[in-house]
């Protein structure tokens, strides 16, 4: 059923259009006019039987009354103003609520609503500090840790979507992804003029997913982009209310894409067989589904604990040792800041995530055992180069290493971090030796001074996004959605 205030507006709209007073409609429906007044003011929910009588009296269908949009543009503005004045941020101002009246012009109403929209935007922008973002990200990681990084409802949606297009195994083709998009009313369109701050854009009104040209390097990633856009529709994601909501939506969309590209129905049997063979390897998992090493590693974190009974950790580290992404449910002692966040912190130089950068051959994974204050871990690390070099590590406690390929590795390191004597404090005498005799120009990381990205979708320029959508709105429908 529509929200009560919207329903009330629709009842009032159709009553007045039919030329009926409250008394006349009450007589026709055998109900007191005061009851109808409460319904029209959104203060009482009518029974379905009464709605049927009202619909019959005003000559519309019940579904017309139950639609969730305001009956007129004026009603939409009045409702938005009323909702805004009920918000906590407005109530904190201590100002009286201004009730829209018939004498209030549309121009005045639009001005008041515009002011409230801007106040709300500034309020949300003001609280979106880097510290808040880090805390929200930390809370989300803790939540995912508590559920073993596994989202069963999204697994079901992905299973159903893959089965609906008849996919039974192996890599998901671009054509199949396009068919999956078509099933939710979306057509994939390639364009080379996407907003510079957006990887993909969805035009819900015209049913289009805009993604980069298929010929770009690493074009296989376009399947994931398209599926993430499909997820926004399937999961009914709207504009994020805050930064935490944005992070949750992004995680859910990425999860859905991965669950389609590496479906549970075939991925779990494959991994179970690898476990029986004591030969679990991320690069095998990657190659079977034609995805990136990072995508395979992340998907493995979804399935490992839930279906294989193996606790593990995942760490993505930049060439300078800073963490750009991490997950653990095996008590790996990740470096943390005061907010509990690990992103941007530097991992121990003896961890596999950093030792792998020193390997002469990087085409295969680097296998290593690492002693830490929390125990010994077996880790497999693959390096790569994007805008900068990075490493992807999947590791498990020593007792679980028996299931993995590479467990015979003789590489063994000892890490005492967070003890500063482990790898951060200079060796005895070096600090004194060079004190006052050296100088270095630091390589400043840009994000140290950058504010948290703003925008309805953080980091995406609103003006550029909306201008892009408007410029393509009149384009003829694409002939097909092949990617």
Sheet with most strands: strand arrangement? 5-4-8-7-6-9
One letter per element, helices H and strands E, the order comes to HHHHHHHHHHHEEEHHHHHEEHEEEEHH
Structural class: alpha+beta
Could you list the spans in which at least 5 consecutive residues all have pLDDT below 50?
A: none
Principal-axis shape equals elongated
Task: Give the proportion of residues in helices.
Answer: 40-55%
| CATH third-level topology of the domain at 262-414 | Beta-Lactamase
Q: Give a short account of the largest sheet.
A: 6 strands, mixed
Number of strands: 9
Mean pLDDT: 87
Furnish the topology, listing elements before pairings:
Blueprint: H1 4-17, H2 22-29, H3 33-40, H4 48-58, H5 62-66, H6 73-85, H7 88-91, H8 106-127, H9 130-146, H10 152-164, H11 174-182, E1 187-190, E2 201-203, E3 208-211, H12 221-234, H13 243-261, H14 264-276, H15 282-289, H16 293-308, E4 313-318, E5 323-328, H17 352-355, E6 366-372, E7 375-385, E8 389-397, E9 412-414, H18 430-434, H19 462-472
Parallel strand pairs: 1-3, 6-9
Antiparallel strand pairs: 2-3, 4-5, 4-8, 6-7, 7-8
Walk me through what this model shows.
The chain is built from 19 helices and 9 strands. Helix content is 44%, strand content 11%. Among the domains are: 4-66, 434 Repressor (Amino-terminal Domain); 73-127, no CATH class; 262-414, 2-Layer Sandwich (Beta-Lactamase), CATH 3.30.450.20.
């Amino acid at each position: 059923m529509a929200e009560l205030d919207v329903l009330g507006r629709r009842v009032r709209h159709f009553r007045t259009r039919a030329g009926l007073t409250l008394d006349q409609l009450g007589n026709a429906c055998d109900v007191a006019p005061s009851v109808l007044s409460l319904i029209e003011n959104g203060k009482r929910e009518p029974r379905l039987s009464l709605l049927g009588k009202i619909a019959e009296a005003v000559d519309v269908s019940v579904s017309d009354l139950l639609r969730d949009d305001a009956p007129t543009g004026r009603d939409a503005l009045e409702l938005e103003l009323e909702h805004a004045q009920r918000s906590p941020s407005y109530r904190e101002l201590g100002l009286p609520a201004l009730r829209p009246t018939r004498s209030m012009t549309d121009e005045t109403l639009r001005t008041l609503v515009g002011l409230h929209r801007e106040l709300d935007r500034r309020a949300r922008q003001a609280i979106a500090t880097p510290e808040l973002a880090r805390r929200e990200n930390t809370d989300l990681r803790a939540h995912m840790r508590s559920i073993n990084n596994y989202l069963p409802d999204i697994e079901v949606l992905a299973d159903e979507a893959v089965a609906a297009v008849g996919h039974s195994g192996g890599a998901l083709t671009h054509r199949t992804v396009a068919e999956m998009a078509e099933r939710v009313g979306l057509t994939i369109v390639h364009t080379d003029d996407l907003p510079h701050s957006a990887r993909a854009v969805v035009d819900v009104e015209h049913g289009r997913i805009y993604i980069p040209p298929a010929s770009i390097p690493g074009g296989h990633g376009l399947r994931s982009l398209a599926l993430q856009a499909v997820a926004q529709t399937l999961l009914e994601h709207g504009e994020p209310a805050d930064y935490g909501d944005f992070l949750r939506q992004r995680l859910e969309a990425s999860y859905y894409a991965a669950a389609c590209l590496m479906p549970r129905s075939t991925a779990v049997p494959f991994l179970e067989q690898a476990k029986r063979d004591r030969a679990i390897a991320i690069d095998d998992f990657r190659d079977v589904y034609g995805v990136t090493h990072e995508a395979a590693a992340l998907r493995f974190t979804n399935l490992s604990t839930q279906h294989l009974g193996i606790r593990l950790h995942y760490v993505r580290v930049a060439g300078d040792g800073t963490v750009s992404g991490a997950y653990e449910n095996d008590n790996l002692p990740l470096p943390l800041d005061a907010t509990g966040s690990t992103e941007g912190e530097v991992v121990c130089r003896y961890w596999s995530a950093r030792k792998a950068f020193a390997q002469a051959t990087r085409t295969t994974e680097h296998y290593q055992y690492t002693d830490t204050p929390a125990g010994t871990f077996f880790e497999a690390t693959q390096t790569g180069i994007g805008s900068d070099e990075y490493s992807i590590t999947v590791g498990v406690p020593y007792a679980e290493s028996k299931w993995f390929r590479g467990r015979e590795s003789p590489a063994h390191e000892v890490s005492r971090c967070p003890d500063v004597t482990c790898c951060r404090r200079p060796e005895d005498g070096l600090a004194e030796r060079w004190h006052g005799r050296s100088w270095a120009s630091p390589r400043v990381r840009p994000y140290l001074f950058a504010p948290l990205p703003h925008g309805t979708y953080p980091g995406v320029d609103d003006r550029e996004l909306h201008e892009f959508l408007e410029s393509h709105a009149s384009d003829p429908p694409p002939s097909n959605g092949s990617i």
